[in-house]
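Below is how a single chain appears once it has passed through the pipeline. First comes the sequence as given, then the structure the pipeline wrote out for it. We keep one example in the README because the format questions we get most often are answered faster by looking than by reading.
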Amino acid sequence: MFTYEIKDVNEYTREITGEISHDIVEKQIEKVCRELKKDLVIPGFRKGKIPISMLKKRFAKEIKSQVKEELFNENFPEIIKETKLHPVNAPDIQEMDYEEGKPLTFKFTVESIIMDQPKDYLGVQIEVEKAVVTDEEIDQYLKTMQYRRGEIQVVDNRPVQNEDLLIVDIDVTEGETDIDSLYREKIQIQVGRNNYINDARFDEQLIGMNQGESKTFPLDFDQNEPNEELKGKQVTFLVRVDEIKTIVLPELDDEFAKSFGDYSSLADLKEQVRTSFLEQKESKNHERALGQLFDKIIEQNKIILPPRIVSDYASDMKKQYASRTGLDVDTDEIQKEFEKNATKELKKMVLINKIADLEKIEVEEAEVTKFIDTIGQYYKKQSRQDLVETQDRVRRNMTEGKTVEFLYEKAEKTIVNAPEKNGLTGEKTESDSSESTDDQA
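Resulting structure:
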């Protein structure tokens, strides 16, 4: 039998003090002693026949240490379950001791995620952007496919045109000072694609030049220029065109479509591209809608996260990002951004788990088995322990997925049109909300 009291140290740390009754301590001492004497050999005694009273005297320190450890390990999970805490670290044990004939007393602190019962998570109002694929998008993609199959030919009898490939030398100066970092020799750029400094004005200056010709021209850059070498400066470019090439594109016809795979015609290819684009957009729009959904649910529920769990999770996210991109992310500003994202992601996970428990959302064993069977033979070759761990992980992931879709189905969804690409009509208008799916909840 144990008793305890819980006290708030701060908004996320709890101090728990209590005691375990003398009777339980004595039973644990006897148990430890019985285990100890099984294999212990002491001169004058047969193996396993050493009196427990002798063990208690000779190995008092070792027995006491093991009794305390085992009693804590047995009772700590029960205390956490009863208090409904969500520890993010191992308990910091500040006191744990007992004297002969007395209870074991303990005091420890834990940092915990603090949250009340979830609320206001059903019927959340969200907007879902309608997925639309335009003819222009299809044409642009087909144009890209044409370029991949295009034939590059050298041009020597005309000036530079838009979309030509050029081999150029580039010198850049500010006043009398060379900007060495922008110097290029024999590089290839495609006119109109802004390959060099991502500024259309540079590419425009190249149109009309001839092979072997050099041209000098100035460009002014304001403080909004992302390139630090050019920001707020007036610089002069000296460009020499060494070679002009053009890309001869194949005809956009049925034969072109068939060359890319099992397509019967150009119309068939276009339809397949449209279907693929539509699925991608629907998936992205669904993810954005889920982002809205959880932003609103998080806003309605107070969740306190210990700083250490946010910092650790942000560090893991940062390491994964750096490994994936190869970029330097070791700055205070970037760390803050990762901590912001980590906070949001952790709160989302807490909510999902709490709501799954509250709504009794579960995954049947057959569902887990079926999923594992569909993802290959690898899992069947695992050891029993590894397979159990895999099943537990799959079950958690599937439960989370079910909970997310449950919340989405219960949300009040309004279908809105995508904002126009020119950015001038990005705000929602009356016509944007013409279609509602509230009755689907």
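The chain has a mean pLDDT of 88.

See the next section for the split statistics.
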